[in-house]
Design brief:
- Helices cover about 15% and strands about 15% of the residues.
- The protein has one helix and three strands.
- Strands 1-2-3 form a three-stranded mixed sheet, covered by helices on one side.
- A hairpin with a 4-residue loop joins strand 2 and strand 3.
- It is elongated and about 80 Å long.
Length: about 90
C-alpha cells in the first residue's frame, strides 16, 4: 500500500538540501546516505549516491527511469549465493 496522496511522496529533507547545495556549487561527488526509504524526486537525476545496505555503501547514479522509486531498491541487502547444488552420488554395484 502506498503513501497517501494528501501527504505526498516521502523525500528526506536533509538529503534534498544536500542535493540543492551540490547543484549550486557544481560539485558532483557522491552523497553518502542511510535514507533507503527516501523516494527519488526529479531533482536527484544526474546525481550519484552512496546508499548503505547494512554492511557497506553501494554507489548508484540516478537516471530518469528511477524517479518515483525508493533509494533502497537499488542497493540490495541480501547476497544471492545460488540455489541448492546437485551433488553426484556414487552408486555401488552389488
Amino acid at each position: 500500500m502506498g503513501r497517501s496522496i494528501k501527504k505526498g511522496p516521502y523525500v528526506d529533507e536533509k538529503l534534498l538540501k544536500k542535493v540543492t547545495k551540490q547543484k549550486q556549487s557544481g560539485d558532483r561527488t557522491a552523497i553518502k546516505t542511510w535514507a533507503r526509504s527516501c523516494q527519488i524526486p526529479p531533482e536527484f537525476v544526474g546525481h550519484s549516491f552512496m546508499i548503505h545496505n547494512g554492511k557497506n555503501f553501494i554507489t548508484v547514479s540516478v537516471v530518469e527511469n528511477m524517479v518515483g522509486h525508493r533509494l533502497g531498491e537499488f542497493s540490495p541487502t541480501r547476497t544471492f549465493r545460488g540455489h541448492g547444488k546437485v551433488v553426484a552420488r556414487e552408486v555401488s554395484k552389488t
